[in-house]
Each structure stands twice: as C-alpha cells, then as structure tokens.
C-alpha cells in the first residue's frame, strides 16, 4: 500500500504542475517543467509499462480536472468522457515513449517523446474523436506576447517549445543531483536559452505591414439568451427574434456596414433551399435593408425522407443576395456521433443540445462571405479551436474573421476566457483581426496580435460598435499549416516501425 502511494505522488506532483498552467499569476509557466516528475519516476524506478501508464494517466486526469472542470455544467457524461478519453490518449503517447526508451536508450527515447506527443496532438485535429482543446501550445495563449511566432508554427510550435524545455530542464536537475557540475551548468544554460530566445523573438516580431484600407464599421450583437431556460422554448421564439432585431435597429448607426449576431442566434429551423424566400429572413433583412447581416440559425435538408440538420451561418446582403455556410468542425457526441459515418445506426446517439440529437451535416468548402466592403470568414464556435482549418478561410480570400459562438452552455469566467483564448491564437496565426459575437460573452474585437481591443461585459444584453481593419497578408502558417505535426507523424512512424522490427526479429 505504501509503495502504491509512493508511486502516485509523482502523478499528483506532475498533475498539479499541469493544472497550474491555467492561472492569473504565472500563466502557463508550470508547463515547462510539468513532465519532470514523470521523467524522474521513469528513470529512477524503471516501472512496468502498466504502472507507468497508470501514473501518467492519473497525472493527466488531474490536468483536466484543474483546467476544464467547467464542462460538467453542460453534460456530466460528456465531462467524464472528455477527461477519461483525453487522459488515456495522453498517457498512451507518453507510455509508448517509455517503451522506446527501454529498447533504444535515452536519446532516441526523447526523440520519440517529442514525436509521439506532437503526433497525438496533430492527429487529434483530424480524427473521429477530435478534441484538441487541451493541446499544450493552446495554454500559451494566456500570454499572446510570448507566441507571436505562431504565425510561422501554429499551436504545435508552442507544444514543441514546452517539450524541449522540459527535457533539458529535467536533464539539468538530474545531473545537478548527481553533482556533475560541468554538465548540469551547460544543460541549465541551454534550458534558459531555450526558454528566453522564443520570448525575445516574439517581443521583437511585428506583424508585417500592409497597405491600410478603410476600416469596416461593425455592430456586434450580444443577446444574452439563456440556452437552458429560454433559447429553445417555442413559446419564446418570436420574442427572441423581435428583441434581437430591436437591438440591431436601435444601435446600428448611419456608419454601420455590417451587423454580426452569434451562433444559432435566431431560433429558426429553415429549409436550406428556401432561405431567400423565408418570411423570417425577409423580416430580418427588411429592418435594415442597407446593411450586410451575418446571423446564425439551424437549417435542414431532406433527401429520400432522411432529414439532415445544419448549424448554419448566413450573410444577408443589401442587394437581396445571400450566402450560407454550415459548421464543419462538430463537437463529438453533441453535434456529431463519432464513427456514425461508418455505422449509420449511431447517427441519432448524440446528447440533445439545442433540440437536435442527430449528427449534423457540414460544408465541404470553407465559404467566405463576400460583401462590397469586406471578405469575412464565418467561423462557428468549436471551429475556432482549429488553426489549420481556420486558415483555409484565409486562403480562400478572407481579410477579416468573424467568430460566432454560444458559450453560455458553460456559463462562467473560466470557460469564457479559455474559449476566447483560441480566437486570440487564430488572430496571431492568420494575422487577421477577429470580430467575435458570443451569445453571453465574450464579444469583442481582437487585434492581429491576439490582444483584445474592445469587449463587452459578460452575461449582459448589449451591443458593441467596432472599427475593424482588413488584412491581406498570408502568413507562413496559413500557407503551410501544421507542418510540425506532419513531420512528427513521419518520425513517429519510423521509430515505431524500428521498434516493432527490433521486437520481432532481433529481440533486443
């Protein structure tokens, strides 16, 4: 029993370091040494694979409990699913590195640690149970001044930075304990340089200047409708529609060019083929016929008696034209049942969020809303967690990004700020200003440096008029995406292949 408790103190210590990555006093700093207790346990005790896996798993459970505990507010089963599955994936990546270290030694072991972890984060953007919210590089978004170089590397560059500093810091301390002064001093110097140089570079990196264009005058609507007690009650639908239209009518000035409402702001379910002629759409347009209006609602399509629903953003133009885009990065088990494309019977096994419990349809193309004044990307809620995905809109011509979202499901300061952080990171990666319309907050204008320029108070019905600047440059990251993750995948495949060959043929 005492031996078991002794083992899991490393889980506790590492988990606390990971959990402390979200705080107001020294944000993200603890991530740079959070792996050290797990390295120490691995090197000093040479545990069995299952023991190391269990210790790592508990550590990552603590990480999740200390940072994204607020998920329980929307779904307790979802809360447990996120924590258990994500912690399992993280523990597996780390434990595979342990197996490689045993077989090939420390240096190849550290290479596998970097490769496996980055591969895990990269694949987490692309597979059926995609939930990259906890990718380590995201947490550096609390200090956007440190990661301006994300315009080159994206989030995975931040993760690589964290992993490298962890390795060198741990090795420095290990040699210091063994009283190998020359080695530990050198490793400590390397660790400090690894930590300082990216920060120095970031503070001296300025977004490339482009020819200034005339600012776009935008009105952001924050209706603050409770999704649990108000939003999906049919008896309140007409009231909600009228109140939001009145917010627009009262606050749009003669200078306003664009109005942006949040995700599913209007409680409407409209056939996607009849959007232009729908009386509710015509009513919204008629109240401000000279404005471009972006809003969110549900649409549906019927094919062979099978109804598919879509979380849709539409743009209404003064010339009676319109464009639409369907949300394409869907929340697992809420908007999309994992593997339902392979097993059709799973399609309707979602949690009932917003009155729909079937897997939603998606857009194949990243539609950019083009108006006379601006080309704007309609990024819907969860999509803002995906850097390479968002950059597709920019490659398609977007010179401004609109994030429309409903974060009220997770009412609270921590959830609002964490979700906002992802929009700040997308601004840095793409060097685009972001206009964010959130049902209950945080609605704001974000500069291309990730800094919040103006914002509305949370949980308040209000509007915000902003002047947004169009940007046209294509960053290295927009052009080449998550190249770090792709190369890590290749390296991991090579290492795993060599490991399997050595086990089968050489039995080293």
Description:
The structure is a single chain. The protein is an alpha/beta fold and 508 residues long. It folds into two domains: 2-207 and 482-506; 216-328 and 363-472, Carbon-nitrogen hydrolase (Nitrilase/N-carbamoyl-D-aminoacid amidohydrolase, 4-Layer Sandwich). It has 14 helices and 13 strands. Helix 5 (106-123) runs antiparallel to helix 7. The longest helix has 29 residues, at 76-104.
What is this structure, in a nutshell?
This protein is of the alpha/beta class and 508 residues long. 44% of the residues lie in helices and 15% in strands.
Strand content is 5-15%
Tell me which oligomeric state these chains represent.
single chain
So what's the overall shape? Answer: globular
The DSSP helix count reads 14
Strands, total number: 13
Helix content: 40-55%
Mean pLDDT: 89
**How far from one another are the termini?**
34 Å
- Low-pLDDT runs of 5+ residues are none
Radius of gyration: 24 Å
Number of domains: 2
